[in-house]
Design a protein that fits this description.
single chain, 170 residues, mainly alpha, 6 helices, 84% helix
């Protein structure tokens, strides 16, 4: 394999794993994976990854991001969260991941994403209802929804990566 092709393939694989890793922090990693795959396919002239595979991966990516988004909402709503609690849960998860990213060699971002989501939902409900128990319950629901959403999205992202790498190495 020529040096240029090896370099492109290496960069491609690195970005696939960055996309996978970013999912843990609540970021839209499947879009990064999809963009990486489309760029690689374009650079290689759609030789190994064709339009059929890309169309399937677009569908999987949209499905994964939609499920993840609605799982946080469903978890929070199931445990009594208001609209404000849901919105603050999403914002709190992102802020928590960013603030904790430097702790434990970056693994703190995982804790920050979950804790931030919990705190966001808690604050949203506490400010709305002024009831501690209901606010904790909403935070817990948000946390459960976020965990389930990330697990589903992560699983679908792994399917995307395996599909792309299988197409390249087959």
């Amino acid at each position: 394999m020529p040096l240029f092709e090896a370099t492109i393939l290496t960069i491609f694989i690195i970005f696939l794993f960055i996309g996978l890793f970013s999912i843990i922090f609540g970021f839209p990693g499947t879009f990064l994976i999809l963009g990486d795959i489309i760029l690689y396919a374009w650079i290689t002239g759609f030789e190994k990854i064709g339009f059929k595979i890309i169309i399937v991966l677009v569908f999987i990516s949209l499905l994964a991001e939609t499920i993840d988004f609605f799982m946080v909402i469903a978890g929070a709503k199931k445990y009594g969260s208001s609209k404000k609690g849901v919105i603050l849960s999403i914002i709190g998860g992102i802020i928590g991941a960013i603030l904790m990213a430097t702790v434990l060699l970056g693994l703190g971002a995982i804790i920050g994403a979950f804790f931030g989501g919990f705190v966001g939902a808690f604050l949203g409900e506490y400010l709305e209802q002024k009831k501690f128990k209901e606010a904790v319950r909403a935070g817990y629901g948000s946390l459960i929804g976020r965990i389930i959403g990330i697990l589903i999205k992560g699983s679908l992202a792994i399917v995307m990566v395996i599909t792309a790498l299988s197409a390249i190495y087959s």
